[in-house]
Amino acid sequence: MTVDHHDDEEDPAERKMRFLFQLRSRGVTDPRVLAVMERIDRGLFVRGQFADRAYEDTPLPIPCGQTISQPSVVGLMTQSLNPGPRDTVLEIGTGSGYQAAILSGLCRRVYTVDRHRRLVQEAEAIFRQLGLHNITAQVADGSRGLPDQAPFDRILVTAAAEDPPGSLLAQLKIGGIMVVPVGQSDAVQTLIRVTRTDAGYDYDELRQVRFVPLVEGLGPT
Ligand code: SAH
């Protein structure tokens, strides 16, 4: 039998190999992170006209004018966050739910919040479909954190703030780590890692990134 080979009908196993190769070549080296990213299919989180680009290392549009992050950035942020199997993690900016799904495979519990109800509902449906029962998604203004569930071992912010929000810093455990893009919303931002110590907070600059802005208040939908 001959098989016609079109680029848009690539064999899923080959597509996955290329996806993982791209991640590694862009610095995602933590084997635990690579294993989860191999398992969770990004194609489930991208719908409509962009669905066929889900395995490219590029951010893509999702509803409510937001974006699903570039896979290599998801991988690099996750490895910088370094979540442990007993950790409780807060993610600000559920978006498509992809980053939360990756975190769910690496820690005990994930809380993820978004200001858009539609995004939270669509992400929840995918978490159910995948049987990811350790994720709690809710509509909330993440710039205030999630005081009811605080403190957290890890906090990952996937929208850019002008400064690391004070309420999020306060909701980090001592020894905890927060990764957050910081800078003006329409410019290149710097991804920083904040570690809370007994004495205060240590800051490391990781790399340049570009995220949609962290916007205060709930969205219209
Ligand atoms: N982590 C997502 C990508 C996030 S895009 C993924 O894996 O697909 C950034 C998200 O942050 C958007 O969905 C946006 O609605 C959300 N956001 C922006 N400001 C927010 C705020 N104050 N509280 C909660 N979510 C916010």
Automatic annotation (TrEMBL):
It is found in: Cytoplasm. Transmembrane segments: none annotated. The keyword Methyltransferase applies. GO terms for biological process: methylation. The keyword S-adenosyl-L-methionine applies. CDD domains: AdoMet_MTases. It catalyses: [protein]-L-isoaspartate + S-adenosyl-L-methionine = [protein]-L-isoaspartate alpha-methyl ester + S-adenosyl-L-homocysteine. Keywords: Cytoplasm, Methyltransferase, S-adenosyl-L-methionine, Transferase. The active site is at S69. Its EC number is 2.1.1.77. GO terms for molecular function: protein-L-isoaspartate (D-aspartate) O-methyltransferase activity. Pfam families: PCMT (PF01135). Its main location: cytoplasm. InterPro entries: PCMT (IPR000682), SAM-dependent_MTases_sf (IPR029063). PANTHER family: PROTEIN-L-ISOASPARTATE O-METHYLTRANSFERASE, PROTEIN-L-ISOASPARTATE(D-ASPARTATE) O-METHYLTRANSFERASE. Belongs to the methyltransferase superfamily. L-isoaspartyl/D-aspartyl protein methyltransferase family. Catalyzes the methyl esterification of L-isoaspartyl residues in peptides and proteins that result from spontaneous decomposition of normal L-aspartyl and L-asparaginyl residues. It plays a role in the repair and/or degradation of damaged proteins. This is Protein-L-isoaspartate O-methyltransferase. It comes from Paracoccus aerius. The gene is pcm.
